[in-house]
Amino acid sequence: MKTANDASAKFVIQWLRLFFAIHLIFAGFRFIIFQEIPPSPGHVGEFVTAMEHIWMYQAVKWLEAFVGILLLFDIAVPLALVLEVPVTITIFYLNTIVAGTALQKFTGPQELFLNGILLLAYGGYYARFLRVKAEPFWLWDGFRRKAE
Amino acid sequence: MQRATWIALAWIAGFVAVIASGSTGFGERSLRLYDIIPLIGATVLTLFSLFRAELNARRS
Question: Which one, A53, A108, B30, B57, has the greatest CB density within 10 A?
């Protein structure tokens, strides 16, 4: 059976990772540098304004920039993808269901597709925590057991 | 070129076409720098890796 590291799949996954990375870096740094908030239609605009007032929008943009850098330089990719999930789901919901313009109906699912397909591509790393029965297990004990 | 390179190129071209077209809202507006830079950046960097892999395969 072919793995995600087979020659053709490897390069397709690399393209998706780099595209998502540059897209996030652009989205993050556009706000960080220019303090520019793209106009959003209807209730999405109200939501974004409310988020900005409680500094949540700013936090999301810094997170996007940070995750983008991790993905671009291929550092801690499985962790970066998980960090981005809440933002991806929010964008998907706002763009696809709340805004619903032709452009947003594409960019919402696009965000979910990119994050989802990359989570699947790197999914082997999550196999250990997809267990039904689990007992308390400190993070540092997990690192120690791996080293043994 | 190796078969794997052609398959990867075909997939990447497909993604570029779909994302570029969807980013215009399917003809609603033109592409912005915000849409173009990730497409070009990811494609150039991946082509560079593909080219390097192709060269290594030919050498070995």
Answer: A108
Query: Is residue A1 in some structural domain?
Result: no
Would an 8 Å CB–CB cutoff place B44 in contact with chain A?
no
A32 within domain boundaries: yes
Domain assignments of chain B as residue spans, ordered by start: 3-59
Whether A69 is covered by a domain: the verdict is yes
ipTM: 0.92
Query: Residue A62 in contact with residue A55, Cβ under 8 Å?
Result: no
Task: Give B6-49 pLDDT, tens digit per residue.
Answer: 899 999 999 999 999 988 887 778 888 888 999 999 999 999 99
A2 domain residue, yes or no:
no
Question: Which two three-digit tokens encode residue B48?
Answer: 């560079």
> Cα–Cα distance between B31 and B24 in angstroms, integer?
6
Is B59 near chain A, with CB under 8 Å? Answer: no
Chain A positions touching B53 (Cβ under 8 A) are: 7, 11
Instruction: Please count the residue pairs, one from chain A and one from chain B, whose beta carbons lie less than 8 angstroms apart.
Output: 79
